[in-house]
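Section handout 9: paired folding examples.
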Amino acid sequence: MPKKAKQLIAILALIFIGILLVTFVLSSFVAKPGETRSRFMALLCCIIAIPLLAWILLFCIQRLRDKHSLSDSSQDFTK
């Protein structure tokens, strides 16, 4: 996978995290007192999930590009 694609996915993940942080700060001013904790927990889960999803996306793309077909004579499938 080209280095540019990895950088693009990483930059997009950082942008999404930044957008989440800005929306959290803005929504904390208009939230009712009881809603602040649940919004913080949702933000925390998203901050953890976004890098994980980016890594899974990169991993899947890499595996799909390196996929070998069954017609490859270089592989031995009798093992």
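Moving on to protein 2 of 2.
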Amino acid sequence: MKKQTIAIFALVIAQVFWGASYLLSDRALQVFSPAFLVTLRISIAAIVLGIIGVTTGRIQKVKLKDLKFFALAAFVEPFIYFLCEAKALDSGVSPTVTSVMISLIPLLTPVFAYIVLREKVTLTNLLGIIVSIVGVLMIILEKDGEMSVSMVGFVLLFIAILASISYTLVLRKIPEHYNTLTIVFYNFCISLCFFIPTSLIMEWNAISSLQINKETIDAFYAIIALALSASCVAFLFFSFGVRIIGPNRANVFNNIPPGVTAILSIFVLNEMMPAIKWVGLGIVIIGMFISQINITKVNRRIDIRKYKKYKKSLSNK
């Protein structure tokens, strides 16, 4: 099997795991409080990635002068990002809506990169954002114009989006000689300095009242599945895929999670969406594809076709 085929398969698996992660989080939140859930998830993922890194020798030493960038990155994601995402799910936002909202991150990142770093934003980026936002509005708005999600949940998800975008921008300050496994491992470890005190201070009553029973054990299994699938395997598979086929082609696969979440919600949660919301989901995905079109390549293809037609017309004279 060719490397590119393996890479595509790895990318699909990674996105399916990320799409399923919202349902696993929703299941775990039935027992565990949001901050404590994420603390457990990140702790397990850090241990697993640490073992992988040590055994493969891939974890590098971080220079003291670079720690401030690692700390800032860990604060915005996973700390702010995962905390807001978990609290949004806990507030009643469905896994499907959460997945759709989070899927806007790749679309909005170029806009913030332009504001902060003055990087170029293409017309297809802007068109994709507009189309996707229309789709999101179709999903979160009811016929009477009221939101189908709580304002608190919506704001929390928007903060999570901003945190993830900020993480992307902060990563650019981290020297390129650090490999991805090193960055994520230290990112998880440092974030625990924020997660542990937050969960103990804000959620001690909920943590201390936890009882060991079948429901708690099942919820803990969901957290383990989250840590291993979404935080470890998906990360490794996605990194492998990006190295083989490149980031631009890999970004196309970011369109998969919302559909995966919506389909799994039907079978696992019996969550049926009205037809208009399925249309909205489709429009969001179309918007993502539009934002990833390389307009230069499209124009070049058009020019080639015009040249061929012109050449053909000359030969017919």
